[in-house]
Amino acid sequence: MSAPASTLTIPGAVRDALKVGLITLGLSIPILAVRTDQNLSNQIVLLPRWGLVASAVGIAIAVRLAYLLLAAVRQARGGALIGSLGVRLPAQAGTMFARAAVVFLFLYPVIALSLAGTGGAVKWIDNFGIQILIFIMLGWGLNIVVGLAGLLDLGYVAFYAVGAYTTALLGKTFGLSFWLCLPLAGILAAFWGIILGFPVLRLRGDYLAIVTLAFGEIIRLVLINWVPVTNGYAGITGIPRPSFFGVPFNASDQGFSAVFGLPFSPLYRTVFLFYLILLLALLTNWVTLRLRRLPVGRAWEALREDEIACRALGINTTSTKLTAFAIGAGFGGFAGSFFAARQGFISPESFTFMESAVILAIVVLGGMGSQVGVAIAAVLMIGGTEILRELDWMKEIFGSGFDPTQYRMLLFGLAMVLIMVWRPRGLVSTREPSIFLSERRAVSGAHVREGHG
Amino acid sequence: MEYLLQQLINGITLGSIYGLIAIGYTMVFGIIGMVNFAHGDVFMLSSFIALIFLLALSQIAGITSLALSLFIVLLLGMVLTSLWAWVIERTAYRPLRGSFRLAPLISAIGMSIFLSNFVQVAQGPRNKPVPSILADVITIRQGENYTVAVSYKQILIVVVTAVLLAAFWYVVQKTPLGRAQRACEQDRKMAALLGVDVDRTISLTFVIGAALAAVAGLMFMIYYGVVNFSDGFTPGVKAFTAAVLGGIGSLPGAVLGGLLIGLIETLWSAYFTIDYKDVATFLILAVALIFMPTGLLGKPEVEKV
After folding, report:
1. Going by fewer Cβ within 10 Å, which terminus of chain A is more open, N or C?
2. Which residues of chain B carry a pLDDT beneath 50?
3. Which of B41, B90, B102, B287 should one mutate to test binding to chain A, selecting the residue with the greatest count of A CBs within 10 A?
4. Domain housing B175
C-alpha cells in the first residue's frame, strides 16, 4: 500500500483503514464468500460463509491501522524503525557466526536426541535437519550461478532431477552403490548444465530466466512421459540406500546395528544421512569459497558486475558462463543423488517448477552472493514451513477441521513477497568482496550488481 | 482434410484464449520491463470467480437467461479480477519499482505461489466441474467419415475475443490513457516530466491486462468445463510464450502469437503425440527466445553501452 500522508490524523487513519477494508471485501467476495463443493452426483453446490469474509475484512482493517500507527511512530522518531532490524554483519561477526553454526550443526543430532528422545529425534533430524540442509546445499549450488556469475536460472531443479534419476536408474539397473552413483550423478548433472547452458549464452535477464524455466519444464515433462525408462508419474521405488563403508543400515546380521552390537533402530541411518548431507553442503560451501579466489571465480564476479567490460579485458565469457552453469549444476546433481538415496523413491512430482522457485527464492531472499544469507534464508523458509506441521495445538482454537499444513505454500509465497518488499537486497545486506585493497571489510549489498543475466 | 479443418477451428479457439492472456504479459513487459509471473494465476483466479458467479446467478438469483447471466458474469469477473490485479500491483510490485532488477521477479513468483495456494485453500484442491453450456454444434461440412463441426461456445469465444480486442485496440490507440501508456513505454522519465501520471498509468496497465485475463478465464472455463487451482501455471507459460513469439511489447504480436501457439498445440496433439504437447510449447519458447528474441512483430532492441 502507498505510504501514508505526512500529516496523519486519527479520522484520516480510520478512513484509510476502512478503505482497505472495503477493498478486502471486494477481493474476498466470490472467492472467500462462497465455497464450491461437489455433492454425491458430482454437481457443485455453493456454501456461503460470510463469517469468514467478515473476519478477513476485520483483520485487514486492524493490520492497516497497526501499520499506520507504526509508520506514525517511525516518523515521529525520525528514523527507520523496521529497517534497522535487518542483519547487517561486520566481516568478523559473519565468520564467527558461521563457525558457531557449523559447530551447532555437528552437535545437532546429539541435542535433538537428548531433548526429544529416540522416538522424537528422527523427526527433528529428518524433517528439519536433513530437509533444511538439502535446501542449503541447493541454495549454495545455485548461488554460484545466480549470486556469483549473475546468471538468472529458474530451471535449477532440472539438475537436481538429473542427479536423482541418475542415482535411481544406475542403482536399480546396474546395481551400482550410492557411493559410485554420487560422483556420476554430479558429473552427469554438470554435463547437462553445459548442454543447457550452451544455447542460452546470448540471453540476458528475464529472458534467460524464462528459457531456463522452459528447459526445467521440458526435463520434467520428459521424465513424466518417457515411461519405459522413468516409469512416469509412478516414479522409481527401491533405490539402493547408502551404506556405512559397505555396512548397510538394516536389521539383518550384516546390518549396522548387528555389526556394532547395537539394538536395531532407524535412528542410525537418519543420523548418518544427516552427517552425509552436512558434509556435502559444507563441501559445496568450501569449493565455492575457494573458487572465488581462483581466476575462474573472479571472472564470474567480473561477469556479474559488467559483461562488456569483462569481454574488453579479454575474459572468455563463454567458458566463464559455462563453468558457472556446470559447477552449479554439478552440486545440484550431488544434492539430487543424495535426495534419491535418502527417499528410496523418486517421482517427477518432486521436481516441479515450484522447487526451482523455492531454491531461487532462498538465494535471493538470503542476499545473493552471501553464503551465510543463503543458509539463513533456507532455515527460515524451509524450517518455517516445516514447523507448520507441528502446530497441532491450533486445532484446539480453530476446530478439528483446521489443518495448518495446507497453509504452508500460501505463507511461503506471502513471505517471499513481504521479504522482497521489506528488504529487496535480501536478509543479509552486507557482502564480503573477494578482492580488497588494504583491509578486508564487508560492504553494503547495494554496491554489488545482480548481473545482466 | 476435414480432420485438419476441425483442428484449425479448435486451434483458433484455444489461440484466442492464449492471446487474451498474452496481452497482459506483453503490456506489462512493455511498460515496466517485468515478467508478471502472477498473471497466469490471476487468470486462474478469474476462472474461479466466473464459475462462482455463474452458479450463484442460476442457483441463488434464479436467472434463467444464459445470455444475461454470461454477460453479468463477464462484467463482474472483469471488475473483480481487475481489483485483484490493482491490489497486487500496489502491494507487491510498486514498492519495488526502481529497486534492483531481480526483486520484482521474485515478488511476482511469490505472488504466483500465494494466489494458487490461496485458491486451493479457499476452494479446495479438487477439479471443479462446470455445468455444460453452449455445447450444441453447427455442422459445417459432412465428410465421408469425419464431420467438421463448430460449437456455439467456440463461436462465442472467438467473437468475444475479437470484439474485446477491437475495443481494447481503440483504447490504446485513440484515448488519452492509451497515449499516456505508450509514452510511458517509450520513456518513463520523460513521460513523467511531461505530466503523465506514471504510477496511475502502470496501475491501469495491470488492470487492463487483468480484465482481459478475466475474459480468458471465463472462456477457458466454458471451453474446458473444469477449473482447478493449478490451472494458472501452464496456460500462463503458454501465453507468455505467445507474447514472446509475437514480439514482446507488441499487442498485435501477442494475439498473433496466441493464435500460433494455439494452432501448434492443437496440430501437434492431433498429428503427433498428445503427451509431448507441452514440450512442444516450451521448445518453441526456448527456440524463439534464443534465435528470435524480438519475436515476429517486435522492435529490435538496441543496447547502449
Report:
1. N
2. none
3. B102
4. 2-291
